[in-house]
Amino acid sequence: MLRKIALWIDERLYVSKLYASTAGHSVPANAESWFYVFGSGTLLCFIIQVVTGTCLAFVYTPSATEAYTSLEYLNYQQSLGWLLRAIHNWGSTFMVGIMILHLTQVFLFGAFKYPREMTWISGVVLLLCTLGMAFTGQVLRFDQDAYWGLGIGAAMMGRVPVLGPNLVHLMLAGPIIAGETLSRFFTLHVFIIPGTIIALVSLHLRLVLTKGINEYPVPGKRVEKETYAEEYESLIKKEGVPFFPKAISKDLVFSGLVILGILGCALYFGPEGPHGVPDPTQINTVPKPDFFFLWLYAVLALLPDYLETILILTVPVIAIGFLFALPFISGTGEKSARRRPVAVLSVIVIFLALGTFNYLGTYAPWSPKMGAWSGEATPFKYVKGRSPLELRGALVLQSKQCRNCHSLDGSGGLRGPALDGVATRLTSDQLVRQVIQGGGNMPAYGKNLSPAEVDAIVAFMQTLHEPNDSPARDTTAPENSGDKGKETATVRR
Amino acid sequence: MVVKEPDVVVKESELKSPVVTQGELVQLVRKRPSRRAFLFRLGAALNVVAASLMGIPVIGFVFSSFRSKGPGESWIGLGALDSFPVGETRLATYRNPFTRPWDGPTADIPCWVRRIEGEKFQVFAINCTHLGCPVRWFQESHLFMCPCHGGAFYEDGSHASGPPPRGLYEYQYKVERGQLQVKGGILPTLSEPL
């Protein structure tokens, strides 16, 4: 009876035929590797995002007036809303992370080469879509970071020559960041980009079926356009295994771990934000992007300003263009990473660079520490035994907010050099000049300090050296500055 | 009763496969201009025209920013002159002149007002000229500092240090009936400063 029902269903829906041409397709036995699990892992994350995102959309209100409140409602009132928000947030983190692993693996295994150019190209568009989802998703968490993140996006668009104002207007859906901006990003995040992703994933998977999964590369075995298709076919015939139920087992294990990982992180860390209210008049904020874009935030701080506009406008175009062109630049030849040193080195350099920039982005040494001048006391050891003039200087250093950029004994801003030991680097004349005229990325304080204040602050800074280090001397007039330094040192002892 | 002749007579040899490929279809159509071929062409042409007609408003809607720049800027009151002491720089806020009912707090725009003397002012946009973050005024060091990438500006808005490519954006202002007014309404960027 059951068999009859099954047969009836199969006859109507062609389930077994569907199986044979999709999940049951043969893959090379050597593709049954732990390295081949990241593609399905990324897809799994996407499915989790669609499901949790749909749930969140039941409650979330894409209106500039209500979005923040609806996020708070999700966090605190809606039953399990906090967990769904946390899963959605961690799902995005996992998705970007696993997708990058997938990209790296595909690159290192030469899977972009003939005849899988279109698989790679559709993958690059999927990468861009996923990053687009990450950015638009961050905007939907409509808080201060989202507001100023949009401002940063608009400022970058505004650097485009000629079309700049139109592009800013197009991005913001108006002259300022406001209600329609959020609606626009909601549409992108919920309709346009996910729709594109679904379409492209279909293409991507279809290509995996028609062109076959990349066989595990063997060093010395080169891809040649004339022979590859034949070789692949005979490989499948000789040692092909059906993807389901044979080759899928490692994917299954990995998928399970991914789900547990997302759930575990969501339960342990909870939802992200929303942070401050998206009210631009609340200006005491330090906007920062989510981790996917921290490296960009760091790069933008560190680029020399004369290069900035050019690089902002050209590097993304060149980088994305290069990704698209890759299968045509290097479409044949060695696949194995063991025979592709340039590929391996590029991966290492790119990962090191992104990792370093992301790390720098976490503590942003280029930003002044806005509260340091009033929040971080002058270290005791730097006031002990100082003369009244020097103490007055310590006070000026504090009240003129020098500490926002300069640290003392490890506390304070990192924008400028630490002032511990500054007396060993600069003579009193140099200190006066630096304070009054600025330079080397320091503002000039000449108009803002009285001569007496300059005297005091320089006197204080001249005491900033280790007891047994001698202060810097003016070689043209060694006695003057040298004596001054010695005096201070004596006073301290 | 009149039995219609089939439009296209297909020879036995042309019926090898039940599925007619596109090439064969084109050939058949070319061979004998028929009512079916005419209808196919008419249908295709009709769809191209109709889709274009429908596409125009859709594209025009999405890319409306390229057609009209919207309402532009207008004069907004920032408050009585007395609320800005001479020699000081104060934060002022205004409601963006063009708002939609669902804009919420996002349409409240802050700016920095520096009263130099008498009716001489400088009104700066809050946005850093580097990448638009909100600059903060520090009365003690007479500097505007940006929290994002470390840009700093002097009290007159000129560039002091860091990555910003120019000084702060400055609003046009006027004093009318004891009120300070500025011309605002857009988010200033490098290509469209205030």
Overview of the molecule:
- The complex is a heterodimer of chains A (493) and B (194).
- Chain A is mostly helical.
- Chain A is built from 21 helices and 4 strands.
- The longest helix of chain A is centred in the middle third of the chain and has 33 residues, at 179-211.
- Chain B starts with 21 loop residues before the first helix and ends in a 10-residue tail after the last strand.
- Chain B is of the alpha+beta class and 194 residues long.
- Chain B is built from 2 helices and 11 strands.
- Chain B is elongated, with a radius of gyration of 33 Å.
- The interface between A and B is large, with 69 and 58 residues.
Task: List the topology elements.
The complex is a heterodimer of chains A (493) and B (194).
Chain A: H1 2-13, H2 15-21, E1 26-28, H3 38-59, H4 67-76, H5 81-108, H6 117-140, H7 144-157, H8 164-172, H9 179-211, E2 222-223, H10 228-239, E3 240-242, H11 243-247, H12 249-269, H13 294-302, H14 305-329, E4 333-334, H15 341-363, H16 372-375, H17 388-399, H18 422-425, H19 428-437, H20 451-461, H21 478-492
Antiparallel strand pairs in A: 1-3, 2-4
Helix pairs in contact in A: 3-5, 3-12, 4-5, 5-6, 5-12, 6-9, 6-14, 7-8, 13-15, 17-20, 19-20
Chain B: H1 22-31, H2 35-62, E1 74-80, E2 89-95, E3 108-117, E4 120-125, E5 136-138, E6 143-145, E7 152-154, E8 159-161, E9 170-171, E10 173-176, E11 179-184
Antiparallel strand pairs in B: 1-11, 2-3, 3-4, 4-9, 5-6, 6-7, 7-8, 10-11
